[in-house]
């Protein structure tokens, strides 16, 4: 079996869908990101806290910009083409090239919930992961209660594999994590 230890993300992968452009985040996106990053209903199930100032959003963007090194898996801004506006982020994390596996995480402005936008973005990232990177497995964890994100993962063909009961202490609360994944074979079977 071929080793996949030498994957590079340079040039940065830009992904297009019918309604979206998944692209690098820039400092010019700060106001768009702050618009949703300041909302508790967005960050309720995320590891990071709501941004209270645009300065926090700028620091958040700076941290993302540091990952654009060609080695670290991408974090995309989700741009809604019709508005030329960043409405969310989706990223690949915890890359284990020796196991051909990666984890996804995402956030979306609530004005765009329940429109199939995140499903569209996740499908684009799955296509990139399986067809370009030749990954074997793509995973995602959601905290219990995050029904909308679970629905997205189910729609794209991910299966619930396990529940880590009260395994994480996040935002002064013990949380249960539901863990989903899709395998390469399952991705191609659903196409």
3D architecture notes:
The protein has 191 residues and is of the alpha+beta class. It has a single domain, classed as 3-Layer(aba) Sandwich (Aminopeptidase), CATH 3.40.630. It is built from six helices and eight strands, in the order ββαααβββαβαββα. It has helices at 30-37, 40-43, 54-66, 117-132, 147-155, 184-190; strands at 15-16, 20-23, 75-80, 85-96, 101-108, 137-143, 159-170, 173-183. The protein has an eight-stranded mixed beta sheet, sandwiched between helices. α1 crosses α3 (54-66). The radius of gyration is 16 Å and the shape is globular.
Based on the model shown, name its key terms.
alpha+beta; eight-stranded mixed beta sheet; 6 helices; globular
What are the SSEs and their pairings?
Elements: E1 15-16, E2 20-23, H1 30-37, H2 40-43, H3 54-66, E3 75-80, E4 85-96, E5 101-108, H4 117-132, E6 137-143, H5 147-155, E7 159-170, E8 173-183, H6 184-190
Parallel strand pairs: 5-6
Antiparallel strand pairs: 1-2, 2-3, 3-4, 4-5, 6-8, 7-8
End-to-end gap: 24 Å
Count of beta strands: 8
Number of helices: 6
- Determine and state the CATH class: Alpha Beta
Helix fraction by DSSP (H/I, runs of at least 4) = 25-40%
Tell me the overall shape. globular
Q: Give the C-alpha Rg.
A: 16 Å
Largest sheet: 8 strands, mixed
Unreliable runs: none
The CATH architecture comes to 3-Layer(aba) Sandwich
CATH superfamily: Gcn5-related N-acetyltransferase (GNAT)
For this entry, what is the oligomeric state of its chains? single chain
- By helix and strand content, what is the structural category? alpha+beta
Instruction: Give the overall average pLDDT.
Output: 94
Strand content: 25-35%
The H-and-E topology, N to C, reads as EEHHHEEEHEHEEH
Total count of domains: 1
- Any idea of the CATH topology? Aminopeptidase
* Order of strands in the sheet with most strands: 1-2-3-4-5-6-8-7
């Amino acid at each position: 079996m071929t080793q996949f230890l030498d994957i590079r993300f340079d040039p940065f992968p830009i992904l297009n869908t019918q309604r979206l452009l998944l692209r690098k985040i820039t400092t010019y996106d700060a106001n768009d990101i702050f618009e949703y990053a300041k909302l508790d209903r967005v960050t309720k199930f995320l590891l990071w806290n709501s941004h209270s100032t645009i300065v926090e959003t700028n620091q958040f963007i700076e941290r993302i910009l540091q990952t654009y090194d060609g080695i670290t898996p991408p974090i995309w801004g989700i741009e809604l083409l019709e508005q030329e506006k960043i409405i969310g982020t989706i990223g690949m994390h915890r890359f284990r090239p020796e196991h051909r596996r990666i984890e996804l995480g995402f956030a979306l402005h609530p004005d765009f919930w329940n429109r199939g936008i995140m499903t569209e973005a996740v499908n684009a990232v799955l296509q990139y992961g399986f067809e370009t990177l030749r990954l074997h497995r793509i995973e995602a964890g959601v905290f219990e209660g995050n029904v909308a994100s679970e629905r997205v993962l189910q729609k794209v063909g991910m299966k619930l594999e396990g529940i880590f009961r009260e395994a994480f202490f996040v935002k002064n609360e013990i949380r249960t994590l539901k863990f989903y994944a899709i395998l390469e074979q399952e991705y191609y079977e659903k196409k």
